[in-house]
Amino acid sequence: MLTMTNEWDKVFPKSDKVNHKKVEFHNRYGITLAADMYEPKNVKGKLPAIAVCGPFGAVKEQSSGLYAQTMAEKGFITIAFDPSFTGESGGEPRYVASPDINTEDFCAAVDFLSVQDNVDPEKIGIIGICGWGGMAINAAAIDTRIKATVASTMYDMCRVSAQGYFDSMDADARYEQKKALNAQRTADYRNGTYQRAGGVVDPLPDDAPFFVKDYYDYYKTERGYHKRSLNSNNGWNTTSSLSFINMPILCYSDEIRSAVLIVHGEKAHSCYFGKDAYKKLKGNNKELYIIPDAVHTDLYDKTDIIPFDKMADFFNKNFI
């Protein structure tokens, strides 16, 4: 059994239109995951369901919970979950990320939703935010039970880890990065601890790039700070990057037959991830939706910018 906080400790206000409770489920690696379940009030029968996760380095008390609660207001059973090794979820050592295990986390969420009495197992979708947008598309490539997928302000974490931002890293730079990370592995083993990579930089340097300022404005301020969030605090284990460098996701995304909606901000530094992911998708049930003037973290919590109605229409259209 996990230890989960019962009081409301989200960075967004609680809705009076939905019921909320804590739940847990396990993945096929035996890791127990913690989640918040949101159910629309005064609705009976089997409902469509959505599992939500992200951003990369966030917890369910932040963006994913806001997405899940809002989609529940629109008639869906939803869960927002903490990925393996983070937040209130299980898994040791702490603060590890994995392209395989984190893709599996989405599939495990589908396992859980599929057997709930009030869920229609033929109408299950997923939403991935930021780094979990890429994981969501990767999950859709393997899990045929997922009928529709939304990737919001997505990152391809494998691509950015292996190639740097805007693919600026060549093989020599990648080799030097791997040397440093493997040296850290030795140090970690010798010390019996895992070095943390650090969350969003604080204090913010005057010459910080805009995207760093963008992250700071969310994770390090009252707007989005949470005590369990990796990005708000000390970050992932440094050596987590190794698996992302070596195991690319989205290899089979061109074989996804279910519906996919990619939502991105026009001015987001990450927009190229969404555009390139969309180019690889095939079929007439795929869509790229670009929001004018929006930056990356606008799609974390700005409810006047996040196209929740469009997402609801997308799921309802494809839950047939």
Overview of the molecule:
- This protein has a domain of 209 residues: 3-Layer(aba) Sandwich (Rossmann fold).
- The chain has an eight-stranded mixed beta sheet with strand order 1-2-4-3-5-6-7-8, with helices on both faces.
- β3, α1 and β4 form a beta-alpha-beta unit.
- The mean pLDDT is 97.
- With 320 residues, the protein is of the alpha/beta class.
- α2 packs across α3.
- The chain is built from ten helices and eight strands.
How confident overall, as mean pLDDT?
A: 97
State the CATH class of the domain at 18-156 and 249-318.
Answer: Alpha Beta
What is the CATH architecture annotation of the domain at 18-156 and 249-318?
Answer: 3-Layer(aba) Sandwich
Give unreliable regions as ranges. none
Query: How many strands?
Result: 8
Q: Distance N terminus to C terminus?
A: 36 Å
Give the helices and strands as they follow along the chain.
EEEHEHEHEHHHHEHEHH
User: Strand order of the main beta sheet, please?
Assistant: 1-2-4-3-5-6-7-8
From the helix content, strand content and strand pairing, which structural class follows? Answer: alpha/beta
The tally of helices reads 10
Shape: globular
Which strand-content bin applies to the residues?
Answer: 15-25%
The residue fraction in helices comes out at 25-40%
Q: Within the CATH hierarchy, at the fold level, what is the topology of the domain at 18-156 and 249-318?
A: Rossmann fold
Characterize the biggest β-sheet. 8 strands, mixed
Tell me the Rg in angstroms.
19 Å
CATH superfamily descriptor of the domain at 18-156 and 249-318: Alpha/Beta hydrolase fold, catalytic domain
